[in-house]
Amino acid sequence: GPYFARLHALDLSDRRLGDDVARVLGRRTSAALRVLRLSGCGLTDAGAALLARGPWELTELDVRHNELGPA
Fold first, then answer.
1. Residue 9: which of 31, 30, 35, 32 has the closest Cα?
2. One digit per residue, pLDDT tens: the chain, 71 residues?
3. How far apart are CA 15 and CA 41, in angstroms?
């Protein structure tokens, strides 16, 4: 929607949304997004891979306290 086009920062920390949050963000969020906080959301490596393919150039990404493997 038009609101996502102007979205510059989003904090969904501690919402336990799992990898679904990465799927939705990849489809609905604009390239204007610069700050994304997903600490404690239950992301796995699959969700992180989806985020890496997003349309944005993030200046801040917080994925602490998730179920991610080694970098």
1. 35
2. 566 677 899 999 999 999 999 988 887 777 788 999 999 999 999 999 998 888 888 999 999 999 898 86
3. 5
Question: How far is 57 from 71, CA to CA, in rounded Å?
Answer: 19
**Which DSSP string do the residues of 50-71 spell out, in sequence order?**
HHHTSS---SEEE--SSB----
Angular region, 24: left φ>0, alpha ψ -120 to 50, beta rest = alpha
How many whole angstroms separate alpha carbon 22 and alpha carbon 61? Answer: 12
Report whether 71 contacts 45 (CB < 8 A).
no
